[in-house]
Design brief:
With about 250 residues, the chain is α+β, with helices and mostly antiparallel strands. The protein contains seven helices and ten strands.
Length: about 250
Amino acid sequence: MKTPPPAQPAYILHSRPYRDSSLILELVTPDFGRIACVARGARRDKQRRQQALQPFTPLLVTLLGAGSLKTLGPVENAGAPLWLKGRAVYGGLYANELMVRLLPEGEAHYGLFAAYQRLLQELADLGGTESTELEGPLRSFELQLLTELGSCPPLDYCVQSQGAVSEDGSYRLELELGFVPVHRQPARAGREREFYGAELLGMLRARESGCWSADILAPAKRLTRILLRSLLGDKPLQSRELFKQVYGK
């Protein structure tokens, strides 16, 4: 008798109808990264779908089959669902959409899976906050995602000098290279890709500690938007558009 594959920790990133009664689920797991599977009969079994096949719920799943589109086998809850509220819901949907859009299928991403778990817990802890407190967790997750995709240059390294970024220096992001020095203070208008060294090093410290100060959040958002835009292209993020419709920004 063939031994079934071991169960995998997983979260559901996206689901869509498939045939008459099934769903195609996009999952994120540590061993396979983003992977698609068919949940056969899930649309008939409403109780199963409502109890287990929900986003932001930690699962243990068994994935069957040898092809790229797996079949979902036994599913267990690996913990209580994380009930995100208010703006935190859109933060979770945003992270899910980024992974669906950008992660290659079938590649292990242990660090990113841990970062996603941490993000969901931080968003759940915020409750329905209307403050900017969710910005820090989102920047940390974006930087982890970009780093694992090989699309975030080291924040403390100057390409031209092949040395460390200086706190009192000014630097310009060159997408294909990294950070190069500029011999002037960045003037924000028209110089979107220019950063103070103190900002870059502050982002690095904040990412490692999880403690984001207000003066670092704005340049961090500017940096991640630049890097993500180069990967996402012109197709807008649905989660961002939905957030704008609800909150007007």
